[in-house]
Design a protein that fits this description.
396 residues, alpha+beta
């Protein structure tokens, strides 16, 4: 179909209906495009269709493809080969005139080179990857991959790492232009904070390695050579600049870090000190939070979002919460379990149900009374469902 396109007309196009052309009355009748017919797949279902632009200012072969999204395209036949690159998403062009101008530029590039300009741009982009681009693509992978997506804590760490590289001006540096010497120099300069320094460069190395692996597949699919093949951060591994596990253990022992609280020497006095502070300076929620974290051995990100079981339904509410997809506390238990806490999607991506002992149950009962009182006194009625209601209204 060919018709003079404008944004109003483009917005009216739907994949469920295929336009048949302009009739004698100037209207555009549609043909149904159902996925199913009588509950069975429709063999004639079109996953996309193109409407060509008949406007006098449109370059020949310019049109809009209607699929899951609407995109502008430009088609040219060069040396007997049909080339049709994407101009861009319709939503990215406030005016259709801008899309026509870009399409005309792409058409000239196709006629001059005989190649798809978008594919050529990808080749250049791969070899011109900056460290910032590598982190952006890698972070997107961490948050969208099918298995074990990165949680908020991991993303916070990556964000801190990226921020530091930005401070150095490395985010705009091409990976291929980052030398081994400057990497080793920066690594040495950061040894005052050993753990953070090593973490920073390990994340950079991981981000670049992922982009190298992805670029190999993209290059094979496009029938070209990979544009990104070398990871300069690997020099730190080759030079054995990172501490070994044995060195880490010795340093932690010498600095008394990661040592567990000892029941007779440190745990008892700590619990007594914390408990004595619960009624002063509005510390009760914080003290309960710390004690429950110690008793259950969980991460702060895992129990901070607890909800009381009685506020959850078996099926999802309007806000999407339910007993199956929300971390919660059940002090009553059910026909199968006694009192328990339920952790939804822990660090390994799986749910975890943990039975509660008498001391934890008693502490949670005190917490339930205190949380209800706090919510009412502060007027945070929406926070009533949370085990640890926030002090700030904007947080709930």
């Amino acid at each position: 179909m060919k018709v003079e396109l404008d944004l109003k007309l483009i917005k009216s196009f739907r994949l469920e209906e295929i336009p048949l052309g302009v009739d004698s009355k100037g209207k555009i009748p549609n043909q149904p495009n159902p996925k199913l017919i009588n509950g069975k797949p429709n063999p004639d279902f079109a996953s996309s269709y193109i409407v060509w632009d008949a406007h006098q200012s449109a370059p020949p072969g310019f049109g809009v493809r209607v699929a899951g999204k609407k995109t502008y395209v430009i088609r040219r036949k060069v040396n007997g080969k049909s080339i049709m690159p994407t101009v861009g998403n319709v939503a990215d062009f406030p005016k259709i005139e801008d899309a026509r101008k870009k399409a005309a530029t792409l058409a000239l590039a196709m006629l001059e080179t005989g190649k798809n300009p978008n594919e050529e741009a990808k080749k250049i982009a791969a070899s011109e990857f900056t460290l910032g681009m590598c982190f952006e693509r890698y972070t997107n992978h961490l948050t969208t991959r099918a298995k074990k997506r990165a949680g908020p804590e991991t993303l916070k760490v990556v964000s801190r790492v990226v921020k530091r590289f930005k401070e150095w001006g490395w985010d705009t540096k091409k990976v291929k232009d980052i030398t081994h010497e400057e990497i080793k120099k920066k690594f040495e300069e950061g040894k005052a904070t050993l753990t953070a320094n090593e973490q920073r460069f390990r994340w950079a190395s991981a981000a670049v390695n992922w982009n190298i692996d992805r670029e190999k597949f993209d290059a094979i699919g496009a029938g070209r050579k990979p544009g990104l093949t070398h990871n300069p951060f690997e020099i730190l591994v080759i030079d054995q600049a990172y501490r070994s596990q044995e060195e880490l253990d010795k340093q932690r022992e010498a600095q008394s870090v990661r040592n567990p609280l000892q029941p007779s020497k440190s745990l008892g006095p700590f619990l007594e000190a914390a408990w004595s502070k619960r009624l002063s300076n509005d510390n009760e929620t914080g003290v309960h939070f710390i004690l429950l974290m110690l008793l259950l051995g969980c991460r702060k990100s895992e129990h901070a979002k607890w909800v009381w079981r009685e506020f959850l339904d078996e099926t999802s509410k309007a806000d999407g919460t339910s007993v199956k997809n929300t971390s919660h506390v059940n002090l009553e238990g059910n026909e199968f379990y006694g009192p328990y806490v339920f952790f939804y999607k822990t660090k390994n991506g799986r749910n975890h149900r943990l039975p509660l002992g008498p001391m934890t149950v008693q502490l949670l009962k005190l917490r339930q009374e205190a949380a209800a009182k706090e919510s009412i006194e502060r007027g945070f009625h929406r926070s009533r469902k949370f085990v640890f209601p926030a002090k700030n209204k904007a947080s709930q």
